[in-house]
Amino acid sequence: MQGNDLATILAWVLLWAVVIGTATLFLLRALRRASVLVQICLVVVATVAVLVAGMVSAFNAMFISARDLEVMWYILAMASVVAVSLSLMLGAGVSRNAARLVDAARRLGRGETLETADNQQKAAPAMTSELAGLAQELEASSRRLAESREREAAIETARRELVSWISHDLRTPLASMRAMTEALEDGMASDVSAYYRKIIGQTEQMTAMVNDLLELSKIQAGSLQLRAEPLDLYDLVSDALSDVAPLAAKRGITLDGGGDRECMAVADGPSVARALRNVLLNAIIYSKPHTDVHVTVGRDDGHAVVAVQDRCGGIPAEDLPHLFETGWQKDPARGSAAGLQGSYSGAGIGLSMVAGIVKAHGGRVSVENVDGGCRFALSLPAGGGTAANNVQGGTS
């Protein structure tokens, strides 16, 4: 074959390739919303068409015999049938997998959880790496959405329980105050000053409850503004012990404090003091009368730690994870010890506030059973720029 003949054949093949390729691109653009099966078949048919056109151009340039030309046509026909058949099989598999993914996305939109059992995974047709990756992402998204729905349901349940419990806790002092005011109005009170004191105590208790609710709403909404400053936790603990000392004396509880005389932390003083007071109140309320509550201040792994150990007799292991949930109380009757009015709201949100305040400071709170009671530990950043920045920005 001469060089001119080869150049002529290549030129014709290139021409047919450009023409057929351009037509195929226009068809693919027009059929871009069609099934992937149609698009794959169109690409294969275009490839076969370029091959046939090139072979015909070569046959005409080489002037081969009619018998040889007939044989070549048979070969091209068989090759074309095989190529189109394979494209149909490939396209059908891709279409099935795409349909499965569409169904999975539709189920995901309806809120269903996508779970692929081992036998279902074996029975499913094999996917390409891209489609398999998409299927895995859909399953992962389904699991995350299911977990999010569970968390949302738990939060909603806790909110309903909290509203119910708060309503119960508000109804009791309101009913008592109404009865006492009616007795005063009718002149039926034998000890007027005692009635006044009881009404004031009930009012203070409801005020504490409302303040706790407002504080908790700020913590949960992320709007609690904290001001970072270096402070000595030992001084905060001393002040908190002085605040709760009268209540401890009423119950015969001995308060024992100790630890590092200087234990600096970067935190918001009023909020941390509130958290410490709530933990101490919880320890005093649930400790057995005529026992002791031990408070220590120290350092652990770069954090300032305040630990409060009471004599409540221990907490069941199944109840420990619920202690910091909003509104949770072990006793459904929600009764509190006598003499706590005015200092304790009884709303079951004190420990959840403690957890929120400590978390807002970038710290952590933990609880564990010890001999004769349990130990609450509040761990706060001991200092440094990161902790300060976290506190200055408020909660998140």
In short:
With 396 residues, the protein is α+β, with helices and mostly antiparallel strands. The protein contains 10 helices and 7 strands.
List the defining traits of the structure above.
396 residues, two-stranded antiparallel ribbon
What topology does this entry show?
Blueprint: H1 3-30, H2 36-62, H3 66-109, H4 118-123, H5 129-186, H6 192-221, E1 229-232, H7 233-251, E2 254-259, E3 264-267, H8 269-286, E4 292-300, E5 303-309, H9 350-360, E6 364-370, E7 373-381, H10 385-392
Parallel strand pairs: 2-4
Antiparallel strand pairs: 1-3, 4-5, 5-7, 6-7
Which structural category fits the helices and strands? alpha+beta
In N-to-C order, the SSE pattern is HHHHHHEHEEHEEHEEH
Main sheet properties: 5 strands, mixed
The N- to C-terminal Cα distance equals 80 Å
Radius of gyration: 39 Å
For the largest sheet, list the strands in their spatial order. 2-4-5-7-6
**What's the number of helices?**
10
Large-scale geometry: elongated
| Number of separate strands | 7
Summed over residues and divided by their number, the pLDDT gives a mean of: 76
Which stretches are low in confidence, meaning pLDDT under 50 for 5 or more residues running? 117-123, 332-347, 384-396
Helix content: 55-70%
The share of residues in extended strands comes to: 5-15%
Can you offer a commentary on this structure?
It is a single chain. The protein is α+β, with helices and mostly antiparallel strands. Helix content is 63%, strand content 12%. The strands form two sheets. A five-stranded mixed sheet has the order 2-4-5-7-6. A two-stranded antiparallel ribbon has the order 1-3. The longest helix is centred in the middle third of the chain and has 58 residues, at 129-186. The chain starts with a helix and ends with a helix. 21% of the residues are buried.
